[in-house]
Amino acid sequence: MPKVLVIGGAGYIGSHVVKALLQSQYSVRVYDDLSSGHEINLFANAEFIKGDILDYPSLNEAMKGIDAVVFLAAKKAVGESMINPEKYAVNNIVGSVNVLNAMAENEVKAIVFSSSAAVYGIPQYVPMDEKHPLNPLNFYGFTKVETERLMQWYDALKGIKYTSLRYFNAAGYDADGDVKGKDKEPQNLLPILMEVVTGKRDFLQIFGNDYDTRDGTCLRDYIHVTDLATAHVLSIKRLLEGKESLIVNLGTGTGTSVKEIVIAAEKVFEKNIPVKYAERRSGDPAVLLASNETARKELGWEPKYTNIEDIIRTFAKIY
Ligand code: UDP
């Protein structure tokens, strides 16, 4: 079976991708610096190299004998990217250059990249398809646009085929409990809410309740991490069949509001979840919703988790 290098394979999404690749009989090598990933997320039947994408010689060594790359390693705190863009420029853009150069040097011709709905900025229409204009509101989103552009050039000049997966709101954990690492410094709604459920925090802050939505709170497209992982496997398979480069949104196409998330979690965990309303968070659009037609058509992908309560229930595996 082909050998896949999963860069960032000890992280939240990466470890789910590794599990899915192993289940599909791929041979897997993980490359991760463990800066935000977890050692307990490593699978015994995957090789592991501890290394940084900024360390070119080490990355180049890891690329030997590889057929395809899944590239997830990146800094991902949107707020921090606005305060410390230098860190994001180096890790997310220089890091991407290193990955593509190491691929070129070792003649590895297929890459699946973790992009984000953050490339779009404020929606001009919803659901958003991949043709929606790119207008990132934060530096993090800009770094994702830049890597997509780099990949277009390395496709044209070096014949490296890519699939850029633009994730909407990743949520949940492996239903078998095989991925155990919790987010070290949660910034996202659901891991924060889980800290309220488990008593680590006293209440959840809801950022804004005066949005133009059905209940005044923001609507997001929450997609289960195992469904995301499946899309990576399908993308690798498709690229190794020799197909063209592709950009794909990954979402369920259904919006859930912050309040609806709280109500669903109260039902799942049979607990009252204290909330406090706070100011709107800057840069938050009212609604983010994916059109997933490309994923369905080009990858033959379909989300298995379409009910938010089922997604939330999977957090109980590790919290
Ligand atoms: N949110 C919230 N309280 C929190 C964290 C997030 O009300 O403590 C809201 C946030 O304003 C957004 C939604 O939850 O409307 C999802 O936010 P998250 O940071 O998880 O993902 P984003 O959509 O920003 O990528």
Comma- or semicolon-separated keywords:
binds uridine-5'-diphosphate, 2 domains, 319 residues, 7-stranded parallel β-sheet, UDP-galactose 4-epimerase, domain 1, globular, alpha/beta
Brief overview, please?
Helix content is 36%, strand content 18%. With 319 residues, it is α/β, with parallel strands linked by helices.
Which helices and strands occur, and which strands form pairs?
Layout: E1 3-7, H1 12-23, E2 27-32, E3 47-50, H2 56-62, E4 68-71, H3 78-83, H4 85-105, E5 110-116, H5 139-158, E6 161-167, E7 169-171, H6 189-197, E8 204-207, E9 219-220, E10 222-224, H7 225-240, E11 246-250, E12 256-257, H8 258-269, E13 275-278, H9 293-299, H10 308-313
Helix pairs in contact: 1-7, 4-5, 6-8
The structure holds uridine-5'-diphosphate (UDP).
Written overview of the protein:
The chain is of the alpha/beta class. It folds into two domains: 3-171 and 222-250, Rossmann fold, CATH 3.40.50.720; 189-220 and 253-315, UDP-galactose 4-epimerase, domain 1 (Alpha-Beta Complex), CATH 3.90.25. The protein has helices spanning 12-23, 56-62, 78-83, 85-105, 139-158, 189-197, 225-240, 258-269, 293-299, 308-313; strands at 3-7, 27-32, 47-50, 68-71, 110-116, 161-167, 169-171, 204-207, 219-220, 222-224, 246-250, 256-257, 275-278. α1 crosses α7 (225-240), α4 (85-105) packs parallel to α5 (139-158) and α6 (189-197) runs parallel beside α8. The longest helix has 21 residues, at 85-105. The protein is globular, with a radius of gyration of 19 Å. The structure holds uridine-5'-diphosphate (UDP). Uridine-5'-diphosphate is lined by residues 169, 187-189, 192, 204-207, 218, 220, 258, 281, 284, 288.
